[in-house]
Amino acid sequence: MKKTLGILIICALMVLTACSGNNGNENSSNNTGGNAAGGTTEPADPYAPMTETVTISIGKEAAVDPKLPSGSTIEDNELTRYFAEKLNVKYTNEWQATGDAYMQKVGLTLSTGDIPDVMIVDKQQLVQLVNADLIEDLTSTYESFVSPALKAAYDSTDGYSLASATFDGKLMAFPNVSPGADAQNMLWVRQDWLDELQLEAPQTMDDIINVTKAFMDKKGSVGLLGNQVIVNIGTSVFGFDSIFSAYNAYPQLWTEDASGNAVYGSIQPEVKEALAKIRGWVQEGVIDKEFAVKKNEQVNELVVSGKAGIFFGPWWLPFGMLADSVAQDSKAEWVSYLSPLSPEGKMNTHMASPTTRYLVVKKGFKHPEAVLKTLNMQFDADQLQGEGIVEKDAYNWMNMPFSLLLSNYDDKEKKAKLVQDVIDGKANADTLQGETKQIYNSYLKDKENPKKDLAAWSQRHAFLTGALPLIQDEKINRKVGIYYDQTDTMRTKWANLRKLEDETFLKIIMGNEPVESFDSFVDKWKSQGGDQITKEIAEAAK
Amino acid sequence: MRDSKNSLHYHLMLAPGMILLIIFGIVPLFGMAIAFQDFIPVKGIFGSKWIGLENFKYMFELDDSKTIFFNTIFISVMKMLMNVLIPVFTALLLHEIVFNRLKRWMQTIIYLPHFLSWVILAGILTDMLSQNGIVNQVVTAIAGEPIFFLGSNNWFPVVVVLSDVWKEFGFNTIIFIAALTAINPSLYEAASIDGAGRIRKIWSVTLPGILPTIILVSTLNIGNILNAGFDQIYNLYNPLVYESGDIIDTYVYRIGLVQYQYGLATAVGALKSVVGFILIFVSYKLASRFAGYRIF
Amino acid sequence: MPLTGKRGIRTTDIILTLVMLLITLLCLLPLINVVSLSFSGKSAAASGAVTLFPVDFTFYSYEYMFKDSRFFDAFGVSVKRVLLGGAINFVLTIMMAYPLARERQEFRGRDIYMWVIVFTMMFTGGLIPWYMVVKSLHLTDTIWALVLPTAVPIFNVILLMNFFRGLPKEINESAKMDGAGPWRTLITIAVPLAMPAIATVTLFSIVSHWNAFFDGLILMNKQHNIPLQTYIQQLVVAPSITSSTRPEDLINFSQRTFNAAKIVVTMLPILIIYPFLQRYFVHGITLGSVKE
C-alpha cells in the first residue's frame, strides 16, 4: 500500500513535469489549461486529448472485415477516426495479421528488432521482452491515467491480470481481461424434446444419462455428444469437463490439495472414477463413440441437423451452431442448465485464466499515456458497443486501434441480469445502455417474431439463456487454478506428458485399455517430469 | 575450342537464376545455426545461447521417438510408392484412351483434387468412414461388422496413404503424360511392324520411354522421406491413433503449442534436409549405376 | 493417339475408357460436393445436408469475398504476381534447364551447379533468416518480394532439364553444323521441341503463384499489397480461440461454405488455363520435323 502511494506521488510529479515541459516547448498552455478543467490536483484526466499529435504504430491483430463499408478499413474506420479525433492521436498499422500468422509476425519482428510502438504478445513473448529491456515500464502511466471503469475491470479479476503483467513490482504491459463465463460449461438441452417426452430438467449426472437414453429411444437421436479433446480449460464445446468436475475431478487444472500443496488435476484419483463412468457410458452407447474421431465441425452437424439434443457447452453457443439449428428446425428450443449438480447441490466448474494477452509499449515511446487513454476509451466504447460512435460501420471491437480484449470478469452474466431485471419489471428500460440495450431490443424483437431474426435470437439466447444462469453464485462452485503459465521444465517435457495423458484417457474411455492403466499413467507421468514440474509450480504459485 | 566458347554462354544462362538462388536459398542457410541454439527471438541469432546438439538430442531422447520416426518413414514410404505406381498406371491408361475430348476432360478433372484442402477433405473422409458412412455400409454388408477406420491403429495408416494418393495422383500423372509425349512415335511403328500387341508395346516401348521420369520422380520423392504430410494427418488424427499416426511434424507442432521452440523446429528441419539429401544422393548414384540414368 | 492410327474403336477401348471414367468420377464427386457447399446456405451446410447439390442456394459466400473493394486490390496483386512471377519462372527455368542438360564433357562446371541447386532444394534456413534477407533487400511490401524469392522453381528446372536431355542428340549436332550458337539453338530448336514439358512446368508455376498465401502474409505489411489467396486466407481463417478474441466473433465465420468457396476460387485459373495448355501435351516431338 505504501508502495502504491509512493508510486502515485511519483507519477503525479512526473505528470506535472511532463505537462510543464510541454508548455515550455509548445506555447500551448491554453490548451493544457482547458484540459485540466477537472482540477489541477487530480492525477490526470484519463480522456484528455494529447497536446500535440502523437503517432502510434501498431502491430495489429485483425482479420479482414468485409462488413466494413467501402472507404473504411481496419486502419481507418469510424472507430479509429473517433479515437484519433478525441485523443489527438494518429494510429497507423505497421502490419496486420490474424490467428497463427499474427503470432508469427510478432516472432519475426522480435527477431529482427523493429518492433512497432504497440503490439499484443503472449506471456512468453512478454517475458522475453521484459528480460531484453525492450518495453516501457507502464506503472506510473497506469496509476495516473487509468479510467475508473477500466480499473474496475482489472480489479474484477482480484488482481490476477495486473499481477501477471507485473515484474519486480513494475507493470510492464496492459493485460487483457476475458470474461470468466467463457470457461464455465453448462448442459444444453432441447427443451422441446424434454417437454414432449414429459421429462424433468436433468440435475444429476444420472438424470442426464436418463434423459439421453430417452432422447435416443424416443427421438432417434445419437447419445450425449463428446469432443476428442475431452477437457479444455479455456473453451470447451461438447467436452466432458462437466462430468469430471461433477466427480470433483479437474483434469489439466493446477490446484491445491487440502494441505495447500500444488497438485495437477489430471492425476488425482477422482479422475479415475470419472473416466470409469464415462467409459461405461461409451460401452452402453449412451455416448456416441464416434466423438473420438470427429472434429467439432462434424459434431456440430449432429446438433444442427436435429440428431442430438443434449451436450455440454458454454454460454455463447446460440451465436454459433444453435442458431443454425434453429434455422434448420424452428421447433428447436435450446435451454441451458447448471447441471450436473454435485451431491452438495452445486455445479462444479473449472475457471480459465482471465489473461492470456498483453499489450506492450516499445521502450522509449514518448507518450505511453496516449496508449492507456486509448484503452480507456476502447473499454467504454466496447461497453456501449460503439453507440454514438459508429453510424455506418457495423460495430466490431477489432476495428478499434488495439485488439486487446477488455471486459469485466463477470461481464456476461451481469449484463444478462440487468436485462432480465428489466424484463421482470424490476428495473426501468431506461437504465440499459449499449450492449444491454441491444440485448433487450433483441429480446423484444425475438419475442414479437420468434426465430425470425436469427441475429436477435442469438443475442437474446446467448445472454438470457446461456449467460443468465451463471449469475447464481450460490449454485456454482468455481475452481480457480493456482497457475496457468508455463514453467521451464514444461518447455521440454510437457508435450510428451500431454500426449501420454490424452492417449491414456481416450483409450480408457473408448475401452481400448483397462481403467487400471490410469495408475500406471500416474506413475509414468510423475517420473517423466511431472514431479519436477509440480515442484516448479508450487514454487511459482507462492 | 568451340565447346569452351559455348561454356561461357552456358554460364551466362545460369547466372541470373544462380544469383537469385544464392541470395534467397543459400544466404538464409546461416539461419540453420538456430538448430544449435536455445533461440530467443528478441536476442536474435547472434545473441541467443549456443547449446550444441541439445535440440537434436532432445528429438532422439523422447520416449516415443522410435514410434514417431517409424510412423513418419512408414507412411511416407508407402505414399512414395503409391504416388509413383498409381500415376504411372493412370498415365498409361489415359494414353490408351482414344476419345480425345473425353481424355482431356478426364485429365483436367483428376488434377483438381490436388487443390482441395485437407480441412475440407478430412470432413468428407470422416463422413464417408463413419460407422454408418458409405464405406462401412459396404463393409457391413460383406463382413458384418463396421470398421472403426479413424480410430484403429491398423487402419489409420491405410486411410492416410490411400487418401493422399487419391488427392495427389492427378498431379504426378501430368508429369508422366508430358513424358509420354516425348516418346518417338517411330518406335511404336517399329513395334507394330514386329507384330507387337497393345501390352507388348506398353512393356517394350512406353515404359522404357518414361523410365527416366519414373526414376526422377521417385528420387525427388525420396528426399521427402521425413515429410509424411502434416496437414493431412493433423486434420485426420486423434489420440487413439497417436501410436500409428503421430509423425515428427505433428509432434513438433504439439510441442510448439506449449512454447515456440524455434531451435527445435529448425533442428527438425535440418535433420529432414540432411537425411533427404543423403538419400537423394544415394539413389542418384544407384540409379546411375544400375539404370544407367543420371537424373541430375 | 500413337496407337489408334486409322483402326476402328475396339471393345478394349471401351473398357479402358470406362475404367478411366470411373477413376475420374471418384475425383469428381468430392469436387461437386465442394462446389455445392460453396453455393449453400450456412445452416444447411452446417447440418451436413449438402451432398451433390446446393441446399438453400445462395451466392453469400462469394458475395462475402467480393463485396470489399480490397478483393479487387488483392485480385490485381495476384494477377500481377502470376504474370510477372510466371514470366520470370518461365525464362529462368528454361535458361537454367538447358545448360544443365549438357553433358559434363561439353559443359565443365555443370555438376557443381547441379549439386548446388539440389542442395538448395533440400535445405532451408527457416523462416526467420529468410525474412531477414528479404527485408534487408527492402523488398517487403513490393511485388518483388513475391516473385524474386520464388524465381527459380527447382523442381521444374530438374524436370525440364531431364526432358531436354531426352531430346535426340543429333538435333544439337545439326544445329551446330548450321552454325547456331547456344542461345539460338535453345530458342529455335530446344524450346519448341520441349513444349509438353514447358507447358507442364508453366502450369505448375502459375498454379503455385496463384495459390501461394504464406509469403503474402509474412512479407506484405500494407493491406492493399496482399495477394488474393492471402486475403481470402485472412477472411476464412477464424481468429484462433486462444488469442484475445471473443467466442461470439467466431460465428461470423461459417468455415464450411467459405472454405469451399475459397477452394473454388483456387481452382478457377486452372480450369481456365489447363485445357489451353493441354494442346501442347499432344504435339511435341511428334512434329519431328527435325529428324529429316
From TrEMBL, chain A:
Chain segments carrying region Disordered: 28-47
SUPFAM superfamilies in UniProt: Periplasmic binding protein-like II
Keywords for the protein's UniProt record, in alphabetical order: Signal
PROSITE patterns, sorted: PROKAR_LIPOPROTEIN (PS51257)
Keyword Phosphoprotein tagged: no
Cleavable signal peptide: 1-20
Low complexity biased stretches: 28-42
Name of the protein: Putative aldouronate transport system substrate-binding protein
UniProtKB/TrEMBL annotation, chain B:
Residue ranges constituting the ABC transmembrane type-1 domain according to the UniProt record: 69-283
Bilayer-crossing regions: 12-36, 68-93, 105-125, 169-190, 202-226, 262-284
This protein's name: Putative aldouronate transport system permease protein
GO cellular component, one term: plasma membrane
GO biological process, alphabetically ordered: transmembrane transport
Assigned keywords, A-Z: Cell membrane, Membrane, Transmembrane, Transmembrane helix, Transport
Its membrane topology: Multi-pass membrane protein
Family note: Belongs to the binding-protein-dependent transport system permease family.
Entry superkingdom: Bacteria
Pfam family, one: BPD_transp_1
Origin species: Paenibacillus catalpae
PANTHER family xrefs: BLL4140 PROTEIN
Compartment(s) of residence: Cell membrane
UniProtKB/TrEMBL annotation, chain C:
Transmembrane segments: 14-32, 44-62, 82-100, 112-131, 143-164, 185-207, 260-277
Cellular component GO terms held in the UniProt record: plasma membrane
Membrane-related topology note: Multi-pass membrane protein
Keyword annotations of the record: Cell membrane, Membrane, Sugar transport, Transmembrane, Transmembrane helix, Transport
Annotated InterPro entries: MetI-like (IPR000515), MetI-like_sf (IPR035906)
Family per similarity comment: Belongs to the binding-protein-dependent transport system permease family.
Main location: membrane
Positions of the ABC transmembrane type-1 domain: 75-274
Compartment annotation: Cell membrane
GO-annotated biological processes: transmembrane transport
Name of the protein this chain belongs to: Multiple sugar transport system permease protein/putative aldouronate transport system permease protein
Matching PANTHER family: ABC TRANSPORTER PERMEASE PROTEIN MG189-RELATED-RELATED, POLYGALACTURONAN_RHAMNOGALACTURONAN TRANSPORT SYSTEM PERMEASE PROTEIN YTCP
Pfam family, one: BPD_transp_1
